[in-house]
Structure formats: structure tokens, C-alpha cells
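User: ok so my PI wants both of these folded by tonight, can you help

Assistant: No problem, let's get them done. Here's the first:
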Amino acid sequence: MVASDRFLLDQRSLGWLLLIALVVLGAGLGLRDPWPADEPRFALVAKEMVESGQWLFPMRGGEIYPDKPPMFMWGIAIGYLLTGSIKVAFLLPSLLAGLLTIALVWDLGRRLWSAQVGFMAGLLLLFTVQFTLQAKTAQIDALVTFFITLGVYGFIRFLLCEGGWRWYWLGWFAAGLGVITKGVGVLALLVLLPALWTHRAQIRAAPLSAWLKALLGPLAMALAMSLWLVPMLEAVTRSGDPLLLAYRDNILLRQTVTRYTSAWHHVKPFWYYLTSVIPPFWLPLSLLLPWLVVAWRRAIRAQDRRILLLLGYLMLVVLFFSCSPGKRGVYITPGTPALALLTAPFIGTLLVRVWPGRLLAGLGWLLGGVGLVGALVLAFSDRVASRLGELGPDPWLPLLVLGGSLLLINAWLRRAPLTAILCSLAVGWLIYSCWISVRLNEVRTPQAVMALAAQKVPAGDELLLAGFKEQHLLFSLQPVKHYPYLMGDGEQAREAAAWIEAAPGRWVLGSADLMVRCFDPAKMENLGNRHRTDWLLAGPQALKPACRGLSPTMVPFSYTPSS
């Protein structure tokens, strides 16, 4: 089998690797809008940065966004400035981070083993499901994975490649950049823990000058963090604004230490990543883990520092997130570059064996079969088809093409299981990005709802959003008002009722479960179903008697979209 995959195993070019990565990760750029849950939020914040000129504190609809540092949003905002299109800009930071991470993995594999291993490591990382998904999604995880990988790269260059102290300091500096991107940037430092064992002799014999140079590492990390923290803290202190003080406390404590130790959502059991995330989202590499464990054990017995450092780091990353009660699958994305590097040196040997090749081939056939079955269900089930009218004519066609293509690829490359599964994944991502996601775009955004609202509300009248999502602001065609994002439905319904009665020419658009608290369903207009709920438009005549005569207790935020 390995002879059939020899062409792929012999490749070494960074240029070809990045070209393949650009095609796969860049496919569909500009063809879809930001999708919930996180993408519209970050896109809206970035858009407001550019339009308001206020870059230090993230804002959404005039309300401060306190949950994440602004680094990722800065990236989208810069892309928006350069392209003039938020539809293109919102995916650029993740795309660039993905490409740079692959380049780091290639170079590390080349230096630790060979150029062929570097190419294979980069290719395996590119097609690890979780990594690909994050590099094609506007979430922070792709960018923080790059900074963490850059930190690990610097430390390993220092520890194993005789790169000098500048690489050690780079590792700390990159970890600091990771912290102000998403607090878990400190994960890069985990590679130093197995280094205490692998380099124990050098540590014991280190002179005082080496210890002094080592102490400069935390200073490099502090310097990186200060690039944002210092101006932010200075602005908060100077202003004395209670909202900014609350932002400071939330971003520095609640969203880091408190969120890790006492998570208030996404609570999962300790073994969640081992049973529910790694098996499906680290495909296809997760299929090879039983044989990789054997290979790693042999390398550990031989005291191979490369394996000891990378495997130790990977295990600590998984352990770190497993110890927190709050868990999401994306959290362990920073572990995927290490897994690719740990797999690439052994992939040729594994393919000589029968079952690794069979499992990879089986995955390709399975994906093709799922595509065909899905197409048949869409084509012949009236019940399913009735729910997919918004996807356009023949919603089954993309799945039919996908399934048929994958089956043909696996039949043609049946003697090259590695090449077959990687080609299958490449074609799958291309069809999804350039065809399926375009069809899904209409139903994944409230664009039609907000367009109808602009038609229904007379020019000059005011519109209030109740129970809104960030995407409603992002797609709004008119000035809108809204209450705090985390304000409860009951309080929002009361305030909306009081607001609409306080002056003529006012309308409320909100989610059905919220609106029925104070507005009569029979007197409201349904503008469409999005995000599992109907969005209803109400005028003052729709007010229920129980909600009349209320006095507003707060002034809503105002948001005016750019023309």
C-alpha cells in the first residue's frame, strides 16, 4: 500500500503545501455571510471599530462587549478596511492563521525529521477536521492556535534545534500574544514541563548567565500582553466609567480564571474530549491512534526527545481542558498541530500494515455513502423537502455530486488509502464551501427578516429589536434600538411595551416567545422563521391590555448601520 501513496509521501515543497492549503481553506471566501453563533458578533464588533474609530474597547450596537480581548476583532477590522467588504473580511484572520500554522508545522517537521515529514505533517494538519473547520470559521480558536503553535515552535527551536535564546524568548512572547487573543495562550508554556525531564542534565549544569537569560522569558510574555493591557488599563483608570471598570474586571478575571474553575455553561464530564471530540473531530488521524500509541511507546523507550516533548505537550493540553468543568470541542484545537507532527514520521510505516489503510479507505467510502443517502432522502422524502424550500431547486443535487465524487475518488485510488482520504476531504470541503454553504446562507442569516422589516416600517418611524441576536444588527437596513444583550426576556418585553407606547411611530421586532408576553399574536406580522423561532413585528395596537400604561425605566441603545 505504501508504494501507492509514495508520490504523496515523497513531497517536500512548502510552496505546494501552502497552495493546496490556500485552495482548501480559502474556498468560498466572500460567498457566505457570518453565521451564528459567534461569527456575526465578531463581524459586528469589527465593523463598529472601523465605523466609530473606537478600537480599544469592543462594542456591539453601542453596547460594550466584555467577553473577549479585541485582538481577533482587530484582524477582521483591518481586513474590512483593506477590502471594504465585511463578507470577505470576517474570515481573513482565521484563513491567515491557518496558513501560518501549517507553515510552522512544516518547518518544525523539516528541522526535527526531514522535509518529507514536514510536508506530510502540514498536509495531515490541513485535513484534520477540527483544524480545517476552525480555519474556515470566524472564531478566535484558529488565531490563538497559531500563537500557541508559534510559542511551541520557538521553544522547540531552542530546546532541540540549537536555535539560541532568541527562540526561547519568542516562545514566551508568542504565548503573551495568545493571552491577549484568548486567555489560553499560556498553553504554549506547557511544552516546557516535559522539557524539565528531557533536558534535566542541561538544567542542572546551567550557569548563572543561563538562568538570568531564562528569567527574561516571562518579561517577553509580559511585554506582549502589555501591547493591549497597558493602554486598556490606562484608559479605564483615566475614565472612571463604571461600564469600563466592569469590562476590565470581567475580561481579566471572570472570563479567564472564573470561567476555567467555575464554568457556568457548556458543563461536560471529565472524559468529554476523549469520547466525544477527539474520535470524530480529529479524523482521519484519530483512526490511527492505536498504532501511533505503539510507535510513540517505542520512541519514548528510546528517549526520543522529539516525541517526548510533543507528546507531553499534547497530553497536557487535553488534560488542561479536561480539568475544567466547562468544555467545548473547539477548545482543544491547539493540540492538532502537535498531533500532526507526532503522526507524520510514522505514517509510511503504518500504511504498510493492513488495518490502518483499511480504516482510512473505509472512512472515504463511508463519507461518500453518507452523501448519497442524504441526497436520496432529500429527493424522495416530501416531509424533508418541504422544510428545505428556501435552499432553492433540487436541494439534493449538491449531496448527490458530493457522494458520487467521493465514491469515484475512493474507487480510483483504492490502492492509495492515504491519498484517497485526503483527496476526499479536499473535494468535500470545496463542494461544501462553494456550493452547499451558499445554499445554506439564506437560512443561516436573518437577512430576509431585516429586509422585510425595512419594507414594513414606514420611513421616519423607529424600530426596536427585542430578544435580538448580533446578526440582526449586522443585517439591519435601518437605524434600530435594542436593550442590553443579556437582559432577560420578561424585562425586555416590559420595556418594549413601555417604549412603544411612549411616542407615536414606533415598532417592535422580536422573537415569538418574548413578544407574546406583551403583544397579541393575532395583531402581529410574522416576518419569517430564523434560528429556530419566528420573528414578529408589532405596532402599538398589538399591545395586550396587561402591558399598557407602563413607564420605561431605561433608554435603549441605538445602532445606525453604515450606508
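One down. Here's the second:
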Amino acid sequence: MNSNLPPVSDSAQSSQAAKSTNVHVPTPKFFMPVFLTIIIATLIYIGVQVSADLAHVPPLSLYSVILLATALFIALGFEFVNGFHDTANAVATVIYTNALPAPVAVMWAGFCNFLGVMVASGAVAYGIIALLPVELIMNVGSGAGFAMVFAMLIAAILWNLGTWFLGIPASSSHTLIGSILGVGIMNYILHASTGASGVDMDQVLKVGKALLFSPLIGFAFAAIVFLIVKKIFKKQLELFQPPEGNKPPPPLIRAILIFTCTGVSFAHGSNDGQKGMGLIMLILIGIVPLAYSLNRGLDQQHLQSFSQLSGQTATAIYAQHADIPDEQARVTITKFIQTKEMNPEVVPALASLTDHLGERVGKFGDLKDIPEAEVSSLRNDMYLSTTAFKRLDKADQLPKMDEAQGKVVKEYRKNLDSFLQYIPNWVKVAVALALGLGTMVGWKRIVVTVGERIGKHHMTYGQGMSAELVAMTTIAAADGFGLPVSTTHVLNSAVAGTMVANKTGLNFATVKTILSAWIFTLPATICLSGGLFWLFLKVF
């Protein structure tokens, strides 16, 4: 659990802060046996579940097995790095306020991350996927699809490792989005003449706003909360002084600090963990489409309901819809998604494809009975349908409908997403394990930076409580809206806000370094992932 400390900065440390040894408390002896037992048990569970999933599909070739194993290893590697890079922010406040011994805090944060991942809805996961060019998502099993996934993951891992090594709290969310943009831009540069799309700029702006405003919210609200706390507890001066040695805070403040650390860790798992889930699902869909393209947990009643809703929806959006060949409809809808240019052919094509989707699904009593070729085709058509509905709805270009028709269309879209936006439990467990392990392995570099080097003086009990409370609330709210935000950005900004509010001053050398990393993350990862994507296209 203990990693090497980063190089000593020039921040001015108080004598009290120097006496604190909590961050250096050794790991208990029982940790390693428990640690290994959990890993082995989890791997056995994952192996059993994967074997059960693959038992109903044709045996994979050796090449597919190697490709699948490599891709999953890299995807889980990203979450592992995310764990010791981002989650460390959640424990910095409880460690530097002595609310919990460092080993206990780290293990608890790892466990809370695990729980957060397990209850995640999947909305953030598929929100991230929606940033990618539509043609790459629909052909994720092609060479270009594999090049896309490998380029994104490797670029994100390399940047995260570099910033972690330097002890700089950079954002894994920021990094991954930069990697996605790099792939999208390079795909457009290489294939613009054939009508290829770049990234979904509407989705990019939505995500970008979340990443931009969340640190500002963290900074401002943490400063306000700290001033309120200072007013409420004005007679308890020890709350606003650096801890003396390893002295814990008063019971109430300690309870709040532990609660908020729990909340931030849980929210981080629920939000950040989904990014890895989304990428793993792309990998599984590309390599084993028969097993993972559609949610095979849906029963016959669900399939029949979808079939009925499809016909009703087709009539609701275009009452006089005619049978348009599916290939022609796909071309029309794909072009609309890529260019966002509306024409009279789009809605009739969508109505026809929607009607045909219901007929095709209704023929089967069980999704497991659908042939492999049909599974991939159905998934792609469903993805085109749901994406087209989103684009039309956002642009207010859906036909006028009465209340009953609107309810039918809404239910159809919800039903449609149930086929696509699902994540097997073993994927959640694998991501949760990687994130939790990462938290327990490489936490110290980032913790030291957050706890000692953002401000000129050691963090106080009141500052730690205020920063964590705001961070927990902000991240949880973002998760509720399906928005990917950066735990790093939010918590670091919150800590800085409390430093300013306390008038203890910021260590501008550290702040400058952190801001530089944040600024350069996007262009660096765009260039790195774009270059890797171009290179991998030559390989796959």
C-alpha cells in the first residue's frame, strides 16, 4: 500500500504539520492475506460468469481469446491507475486531519469505491460512449474499432501514470475525454472524404460544461461552507488550527469527515467506475457480439412489449410510413446523425426502421435464439434508432404528437435503451476490484500533494470537513444527472477554496503545476490518442 513519496516541494510546512506521521502509518500485517483472498475470490467469480456467458456461443479462436484478454487487461489497467490517481483525493482530508489512520482510510475508501461501482446505473458509461463517432461504435468489431479502444486506453493510462509519478492530481475523466476526442478527430481527418464523422460535439459540450463548472462549484461552495462552519463553531478554535501531531478531531467533526470521505469514495466509484465499464462493453461487443451485444436477461414479455411499442411509435412519428428498405433507411439515418442536417427523408426512414425492429424482435421468443449475424445487425439498428431520436428530440424536430403518442414514444425509447444500456455484474465486479486495488496501492503521492502542498499551511479539521462535504454533494449530483465529472478537479478546487476562505494562502507553485496539468491534459491526450489510433490502424 505504501508508495514512494514524490519529490519535496518548496511549500512552506508548519512545524505542527511536520510532526504528523499519520500518512506514514505502516500497513497492518493482516492486510496482505485478506487482500490476496479477495483478489482470488473475485477472479474465480469473474471466471465462472464469463464461462457461463460464453457457453452459449461458438468457441472463440485463439486470436480472439488473446485480443479479448489483452483488451480487458488494458481496460482494467486504466481503472487501476484511476484508483490510485483519483481516489487518493478522497482520503487526503481524513488522513491529514487524523480522522482515520492512513491504512484504515485507504482500505475503507477502496471498499466504498467497490460499492459505488456495483450500484452504478450505467448512464455515465454510455454517455462517454456517445462521444465517439457513430461509425466506429457500429463497427466496433472491426480493425478500426479495436484501434479506437486500444488508442484511447493506452493514451489515458500513459498520461495518468506520468502525472501520478510527478505527484500531480490530474483528472482521469479529463484524460479519457481527451483520448476520445483524439480518436474522433483523427478518424475525421483520415476519412472525411467518405463522410466519416468526428466526435459528437453536442455531447462533448455537455460533458465539457460539467468538467468546467464542477471545479468552480467546488471552489466557491467549499469556501462558503467553510465560512459558515467557522461562524457556527467560532468558539471551538481548535477546529481551525492544524492538527497537533496525530491528534484526531473532535467526535462530531471526525464523524462528518469519515461520512464525507465515505460519500466521495462511493460517488467516485459510481461515476468514474462507469467509464471503464463503457469501454469494456465496447470490447465485449466487438469480440463476442453474440454474448454481449444485447441484454440477454430480458424475457419474452419484454420482447413482445417492445414489438408492440415499435409499431405504435412508428405510427406516432409518421402515420403514413411506408416500408423503406432497411439498408436505405440506415444510410439516411446515419447521414443525419453524422451531419445533423435535417431533410424530409429522415423521419420516414426512422419510422420504417422502428417498425421493422419490432417485427424482427417479435419473431423470437428468447434473445438467445437470435443468430449471431442478426444480433449485430439488431444492435446497430437499435443504436441508430435511439441516437436519431435523441438528436431529433434535442433539435425539437420530432413531429407534433398528442399526449398519448408522446407517452408511447417515451416508453419505446426507454424500452430500446434496456436492450443496449446494460452492464453484466461481472464487469462491474472486475472494474470495482481494479479501482479498489488501485486505491490501496498508489495512494500516497497524490495524498501528500493534496494534504500538504495546495496551501501554505497544513490542512485544518474545518477545511477538510468543508472540502469533502462539497465534493461529495457535487459528484453525487453529477452522477444523478449522468454527467462525468472529475473527482480530482472538484476536491482539489474545494481544498483550494477553503484555503482562500481561511486566509492561509495558496502555495502558488503547486497550484500552478496542477493548473498546467489540467490545461495540457486535453491537447496532450488528443495528440497522443490520435497518433496511437493512426498507428494501430496500420496493425489491425
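Residues 1-18 have pLDDT under 50 and may be disordered. The chain has 21 helices and no strands. Good luck tonight!
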